[in-house]
Amino acid sequence: MGIDGYIVEVETDIGNGIPGFEIVGLADVAVKESKERVKAAIRNSSFDFPVRRITVNLAPASKKKEGSSFDLPIALGILSATGQVDTREIEKYLFIGELSLDGKLKPVNGILPVAVCAMQQGVENLILPCDNAGEAAVVKGLNVLPARDLEEVVAHLNGWKRIERYTVDVDKLFENSINHDVDFSDVKGQESVKRALEVAASGGHNCLMIGSPGSGKTMLARRLATILPSLTFEEALEITKIHSIAGTLPPNTSLITTRPFRSPHHTISEAGLIGGGRYPKPGEISLAHYGVLFLDELPEFGKQTLEVLRQPLEDGMVTITRFNTTLTYPAKAMLICAANPCKCGYYLDPSRQCTCTPRQIQQYLGRLSGPLLDRIDMHIEVASVKFGELESNIASESSPVIRERVNRTRKIQLERYKGLGIYSNSQLQPSMIKKFCKLDKSGRELLEDAFEKLGLSARAHSRILKVSRTIADMEESEDIKAHHVAEAIHYRSLDRKLWFG
Amino acid sequence: MFEKLKYWIWMSSVPGMGAKKKYDLVNHFGDPVNIWNSSKRELMDVPFLTEENVNALLDRNKRSETMGIMDALYRNGIKAITIKDPEYPDCLRNIYDPPIVLYYKGRLEIRQLSIAVVGSRRATYYGKSVAERISAELAAYGINVVSGMARGIDSSAHRGALKGGGRTIGVMGCGLDIVYPPENKELAERITESGALVSEYVPGTAPLPANFPARNRIISGISQGVLVVEAGEKSGSLITVGYALEQGREVFAVPGNINSISSAGTNRLIKEGARLVTSAEDILEEFNLIDNLNQKKEGERVKTVQKSIFSALDEKERMIAECLLEGPMHIDLLVRQCKMEMQSLNTTLVMMELKGLVEMLPGKHYRLRI
Ligand SMILES: Nc1ncnc2c1ncn2[C@@H]1O[C@H](COP(=O)(O)OP(=O)(O)OP(=O)(O)O)[C@@H](O)[C@H]1O
Ligand SMILES: [Zn+2]
């Protein structure tokens, strides 16, 4: 459940009595509707639909079945019970797919979890709709046999015409994925923001970007996903599973090999954000799993909406209770928020006119304080790049170059936190901070000085320590030195008196 | 002398009378001591005094408070100067309604040209940076910068003048024992080190809104010209312009974006004949000073500033400070001009902030604090 698949056995009984067609075994409405589709598909594929009493049982009966993916196995059940299909090898097969009335196979959501499960349970062959083949074929050790329609499936089983096995080259998929369609070098200027985002990526730190409309916050956030460490096969599989279930897998995609970037609008519902609903689906935070969840115009999001994000962000997963089942979806996303500096948006923009009073400015960002802001390690101020600079051709680093450095820094963290259940500095718990973020004397003095002179608020303390750990790691320095702390202080501008008075 | 001052202070603290009436009254009797000693009948004979005025003048309680005021002056390091003192600023003495007593902290001798730099309290970044820059330039030319210590343009003008290494005078609308607005405490202290804070109000007078328009006539009164940097259509700084014109002072204005409501007032002033100003030289020219004060001064200033603080800086800090001499700068521009790595610039800036050498403004602009 959640993002893991399970195998359902389809039992068919053809008996005497009043002709009829019954599906039992905790099936939902969509499953029951398959009766009509199966009947038509069998007839229109020039097979016989028996005029007898048909009972189909979906086992185990204790689990709820949803959707249209049982059409194919039910049709095959009827055909084998009436002797129209050779059943000698049928135990080695798993079938999935929706039938249209003319017998064509239509793609379904959630193929990848099913394929993974089939492989784990020792199933040899998976027959599925053509459009789902790429997705299933990334699972090693499983024969993926794509079919266009019911006739092709029957022809294969009866040995009339074998379906050819579908394969993909996973290594090649990864190679191609190195080329994102966006790149850090697209961003002109913004040197300080780029550095800040590299720090964020290196330690997995959640950020808040503050800047006027059009200053490039969305553009920058989108590119953050391109400098996060490269995905492993297991991570890619997990991401793809989620998108497979949610039906958000782009067509003809076998495996998602780039980190997702999700940017839900502020009008999104709670269920849309964290998952759930009548037919439970992963929410945006799970769709952003191992990638970036970008909340643009953060102050516009409802307080309640943001509140429900808190626990998933903490746990790295979402738990949804529905009827008497519990679903969990993974949700290890990096959170990037963006906000205008004030109501009118132009407080930081030297070339425009801010019409807000000092009190309004404080109130606006003041709304952000509280639980979600506590999950944010870094504050990044984004200024609009001047018109002339957008034209300039100063070369800047490309995403792969930056990602290479990020990979290196992350590796240091993976080593350090082996066996502790965390993988990056951003996840350090208070007790661990004491152990892993020790400052030398000059660092300690600097931090004390900063708290006093810059008026930093107390909540800044542990965030500064975590971020300075990352900055030290970027220099491959085991000790956290004064200059690492100094830079980390840079990224807490909202904690200063300057902003919140 | 001390005895005599008491009567002046008493006179300046009497409520219910404007500056003009007090000025006329002092002239009528020759000296406040004579007013103090007048009978009710003698006071009633003065044609411009109302019965309430006379009662206020005879009020024993008010009279007995005077020693307390003098005590407060002493405790707060506030000095008082009367209109009869030779050190009383001449230009102020000659306005229609000069204060009979001027209270001040710091050093008041005003011998050089004084220019008032004023504008909105709700100023934009543009306004504040221009106010600071032009005030710094004026100060570097040895000109006294006068303003009202308010938020926004006024504060920037004072800061700029200090940065330019010059003197500045802040005219307050409350007693000098009160710092208003409160966040200007440090600025107030720095102003009195070389220049002065000035007020016509006795200690203990609150910053009442009614005091500010009257305060503005002193700002223009002790200046030869008034520069309005940024003002909306209804800005209080336009009141100062009104006084300036009445007192025969020059009026200057900085142009703004024609779409900006914050510059509507200044743009209109220009349309109505105020001189358009884009740098301190435009003002010097108006006073025919451009030849006497040639550009050498600017160079000298930079050198003295450099000598005093730059010697204590390391190489990176010096590079940053040099860039910031031209005015506040965004961090991205700094990194290009200093040709430093971003991380090392980040680090150095925080270190400099902690040493009090630079200040971070919202939006990652940095400003030199000298
Ligand atoms: N530094 C930059 N380099 C190149 N292009 C830029 C830069 N900054 C902004 N742009 C351009 O301006 C457009 C607007 O940027 P973007 O939509 O990211 O702004 P934003 O800050 O997210 O605005 P909003 O407040 O609407 O979210 C971008 O699509 C991009 O074309
Ligand atoms: Zn605004």
Overall description:
The complex is a heterodimer of chains A (501) and B (370). Chain A is of the alpha/beta class and 501 residues long. Chain A has two domains: 160 residues, Ribosomal Protein S5, domain 2 (2-Layer Sandwich); 239 residues, 3-Layer(aba) Sandwich (Rossmann fold), CATH 3.40.50. Helices cover 39% and strands 15% of the residues of chain A. Chain A has 21 helices and 17 strands. In chain A, strand 7, helix 5 and strand 8 form a beta-alpha-beta unit. By secondary structure, chain B is α/β, with parallel strands linked by helices. Helix content of chain B is 49%, strand content 13%. In chain B, the strands form two sheets. In chain B, strands 1-2-6-5-4-3-7-8-9 form a nine-stranded mixed β-sheet, with helices on both faces. In chain B, strands 10-12-11 form a three-stranded antiparallel β-sheet. In chain B, helix 8 links the parallel strand 3 and strand 4. The model of chain B has no long low-confidence stretch (mean pLDDT 88). The chains are: A alpha/beta (501), B alpha/beta (370). Chains A and B meet through helix 8, helix 18 and helix 20 of A and helix 8, helix 17 and helix 18 of B. Adenosine-5'-triphosphate binds next to helix 9 of chain A.
Number of strands of chain B: 12
Radius of gyration of chain A: 27 Å
Could you name the CATH topology of the largest domain in chain A? Rossmann fold
**Roughly how many Å is the radius of gyration of chain B?**
23 Å
For the record, the count of structural domains of chain A works out to 2
Apparent shape of chain B: elongated
What compounds sit in this structure?
adenosine-5'-triphosphate, zinc ion
- CATH class of the largest domain in chain B equals Alpha Beta
Q: What low-confidence regions of chain B span 5 or more consecutive residues with pLDDT below 50?
A: none
